[in-house]
Amino acid sequence: MRSQSALIGSIALAAIASGSSTSATSTSTSSSITTAGLLPTLSPPNGPVSAPADSTLIQIGFLGPLNYQFIIANPVSSAQIFMWLPEGLAHGLGLNSDQVVMESLAPLNTTARLHYITTLALAYIPTNMVSSLALDLHNTTATLYNDPDSSVKTLMNLINPSIPLAPGSNLPDTDSTGTGSAGAASSTAAT
Ligand SMILES: *[C@@H]1O[C@H](CO)[C@@H](O)[C@H](O)[C@H]1NC(C)=O
Ligand SMILES: *[C@@H]1O[C@H](CO)[C@@H](O)[C@H](O)[C@H]1NC(C)=O
């Protein structure tokens, strides 16, 4: 029963590894897609969902290896986020996995600060867990980042905790002064 997820896991790690080696997976992708506004939003594989009772919609942003152009170009990766993020969030928060419901994947234009378009996962979680999640995102020893399933753990450790949880919000200080090399590395260090 483990074989299918193990197979998908090895694909994920390969996909994540190849994505991290370059900021754009092909020159045609990087030249044809220049704005976040032209990128589609992705719905869950099983179709649109409605909000569970007593839930709140939150957004989780991912780091550069899972940038949005990469996700669009690699459907396996979006399928993996839809599958594994609810598992990781639920386990991290001590919930059943059906208490975390994926709503969509969407682009967030972080080009000015991070030099890539961030992938956002929008998900419904129990409203009384929002503040716990906000704390755990900044706690590297939290269960959230130490899932027993290595594929889920890999995904959870590609979360960018600097992206605010409130849907529609961007990184603080989006002022785009071209100061050069302030990139993804500095954002991951933010507390
Ligand atoms: C994304 O941000 C960059 C840098 O601030 C800007 O030039 C570009 O127009 C933005 N794209 C969209 C769709 O807002
Ligand atoms: C971080 O997570 C660990 C493990 O759950 C916990 O023991 C610790 O209290 C947390 N630290 C903070 C500051 O919340």
Q: Give the ordered list of helices and strands.
A: HHEHHEHEHHH
What does the oligomeric state look like here? single chain
Q: Which sheet architecture does the biggest sheet show?
A: 3 strands, antiparallel
Low-confidence regions: 1-15, 17-35, 176-191
> Would you count the extended β strands for me?
3
Which shape, going by the Cα principal axes? globular
User: How large is the radius of gyration?
Assistant: 16 Å
Q: How much of the polypeptide forms β-strand, as a percent range?
A: 5-15%
Order of strands side by side in the largest beta sheet?
1-3-2
Termini gap: 39 Å
Name every ligand kind in the structure: 2-acetamido-2-deoxy-beta-D-glucopyranose
Q: Overall mean pLDDT score?
A: 80
- What is the tally of helical segments? 8
Measured as a percent range, the helix fraction is: 25-40%
Q: What class do helices, strands and sheet pairing give?
A: alpha+beta
Protein name: FAS1 domain-containing protein
GO biological process, one term: osmosensory signaling pathway via Sho1 osmosensor
Biased composition (Low complexity): 176-191
Keywords: Signal
